[in-house]
Design brief:
- By secondary structure, this protein is an alpha+beta fold.
- The protein has a domain of about 250 residues: BirA Bifunctional Protein, domain 2 (2-Layer Sandwich), CATH 3.30.930.
- It has a four-stranded antiparallel β-sheet.
- The radius of gyration is 42 Å and the shape is elongated.
Length: about 400
């Protein structure tokens, strides 16, 4: 009879022998799991394609020239120690910044638009904006540079805030060029009209930004650069000389009073009614006739007609006679005016280059008699007051007429 202890030993031996056979058929489950956890895609590759893809992420335009060539040559010689995983990381897994970033070609103008979006992880590389090169023509204080005209042309074609932000350096270069030109022109103004002081350019130049609050057109910027010269700069009650730079033959030189307030307008109409010979003598001046009226003859009627047909004068004139003056007044064409201005356009060749300053200064000098007359009426000097102004009635009782507000 076999003892129980012998049976237990035999059973134990059979069980242990079955466990020893298992390694010949299967690999340990723990070891197989480790092999699956380390896929090839997480190991730092040796291929050139992947290294080029990650190179754009690590190197910028700023440090491209400061890289160590030796570090690049040894980048593919990676030992097993180099890929030793850190605690809590998978073996060979690169840092987050080393992951490849998708690149996409995007229009620069689109990026400046409100609400512009890019796919997540997109790398965006933009060239640093630079001002347009001066080329063979250096900038000068007494000329308008061709780049200023080119900038205004581009602004007219891309009149958007986003575009101007991207080309801010071109705008500043054009503004500086125009500012220096105005400083030189301001010195010449004193030679023609002693009443015009040399004021800071900031008191002469107009802003390029448009006031769109009450305008149907919401274009944010003017497509020209302009300034006005008077005893108080671009603002004030005095008649002024006006200079505008705009490409495409739209540059303009003129002067006078555009839409003056009620009191200056009343004084001008009163002077025309009482002493029409004063304004007619100015309008028949040879300089004005040759420059602004096309060289007409020395004839008062022709001069008055040419003056009232000036575009800014005609566009703001009353349709009927003004209140207080008869409709058949002998000088009704002058009395209907609400603006008293002169002006002429200039081609780009007349503005840009060495001849531009002399051309603009010559136009300004021809307007001196006209500007002087307007200021003598609306803002007379104390020592030039004429007591004979009250010899005749003021003509305000000659019947009804159109109110200025009904133009």
């Amino acid at each position: 009879m076999v003892r129980k202890s012998a049976k237990a030993a035999a059973a134990s031996a059979s069980r242990s022998s079955s466990k020893r056979v298992a390694p010949d058929k299967h690999t340990p489950s723990r070891q197989s799991k480790r092999a699956k956890v380390t896929p090839a895609k997480y190991v730092e590759p040796d291929s050139d394609d992947v290294s080029e893809e990650t190179q754009d992420v690590k190197v910028s335009d700023f440090d491209a020239d400061s890289r160590d060539p030796s570090s690049e040559s040894n980048s593919n010689e990676t030992s097993e120690e180099d890929v030793e995983p850190k605690k809590g990381t998978l073996k060979g897994r690169p840092a987050k910044r080393m992951l490849p970033i998708h690149t996409k070609q995007v229009d620069e103008k689109e990026l400046w638009k409100s609400g512009a979006k890019l796919p997540p992880g997109t790398q965006l590389i933009m060239k640093k904006p630079k001002a347009r090169d001066a080329g063979d023509t250096p900038y000068s204080d007494d000329t308008i540079h061709p780049n200023t005209m080119l900038f205004l042309e581009d602004l007219a074609a891309n009149n958007e805030r986003q575009w101007l932000k991207l080309h801010d350096l071109d705008y500043r270069a054009a503004l500086q060029d125009f500012t220096k030109f105005l400083e030189t022109l301001s010195q010449k103004m004193g030679e023609f009209d002693e009443t015009i002081p040399e004021l800071p350019v900031k008191d002469l130049i107009f802003r390029i930004y448009r006031d769109v609050r009450f305008s149907k057109s919401q274009i944010p910027y003017k497509t020209h650069l302009s300034a006005a010269f008077s005893r108080t700069g671009r603002k004030g009650p005095y008649a002024a000389y006006y200079v505008q730079i705009q490409p495409g033959g739209e540059s303009f030189v003129g002067g006078g009073l555009w839409n003056p307030e009620a009191e200056p307008l009343r004084l001008l109409r009163r002077d025309i009614d009482r002493k029409p010979h004063k304004i007619k003598r100015v309008l028949t001046d040879e300089g004005l006739r040759n420059v602004f009226f096309g060289g007409i003859d020395d004839d008062e009627k022709k001069a008055v007609r040419a003056f009232t047909n000036q575009s800014s004068n005609r566009s703001t004139a009353l349709k009927r006679h003004p209140k207080g003056y008869a409709h058949d007044h002998k000088d009704i064409d002058l009395l209907r005016l609400k603006s008293f201005t002169l002006g002429t356009k200039l081609s780009d060749d007349e503005v840009v280059g060495a001849k531009g300053l002399d051309r603009i200064a010559g136009l300004v000098s021809s307007m001196v008699p006209f500007i002087t007359y307007l200021n003598s009426v609306v803002m007379p000097d104390e020592d030039s007051s004429d007591s004979s102004d009250d010899e005749e009635g003021d003509g305000d009782d000659s019947g009804g007429g159109e109110d200025d507000g009904d133009a």
